[in-house]
Amino acid sequence: MGNLERKLLFKPKHNLIEKVAGQLAATWYEIGRGQGMTSKYKNARLYARANIEKFIPKALEHLIDMLGNPSTPEIMKKEIYDAIMERKNDPDVAILTENGKFQ
């Protein structure tokens, strides 16, 4: 997360968005490697660290979907909500358009 941390004006209290983005990136890497993809990265962790910013929009989409899921526990919904609201003015995490649809 080195590149991402340098871009932020403040260090967020919640790093849930980055954690989910990292997990999505690592999963993407593992699936690709399982299908024969070659990579300059030796493992999923290195790939995720180098590409985490690319996965933030999908991580936010996933977290927002979890907010609307009735089976998501309330404590988890609060943590997701807090993480998103803490960064609501960050242009890198703004994924909603004016009409309320995902970009």
Please provide a written account of the structure.
The protein is 60% helix and 0% strand. The protein is globular and about 40 Å long. Residues 96-103 have low confidence and may be disordered. It starts with a helix and ends in a 17-residue tail after the last helix. The chain contains 4 helices and no strands. Helix 2 (16-34) packs across helix 3 (44-67) and helix 3 packs across helix 4. The protein has helices at residues 2-7, 16-34, 44-67, 74-86. The protein has 103 residues and is mainly α.
SSE topology sketch:
Layout: H1 2-7, H2 16-34, H3 44-67, H4 74-86
What descriptors fit this protein?
103 residues, disordered C terminus, mainly alpha, single chain
The global form is: globular
Tell me what portion of residues adopts beta-strand conformation. under 5%
Order of helices and strands: HHHH
Largest sheet: none
User: How would you state the average pLDDT, rounded?
Assistant: 82
* CA-based gyration radius: 15 Å
Count of helical regions: 4
First-to-last CA distance:
24 Å
Quick one: how many beta strands?
0
User: What structural class do helix, strand and pairing data support?
Assistant: mainly alpha
Poorly predicted parts: 96-103
Helical fraction: 55-70%
Short description:
With 103 residues, this protein is an all-alpha fold.
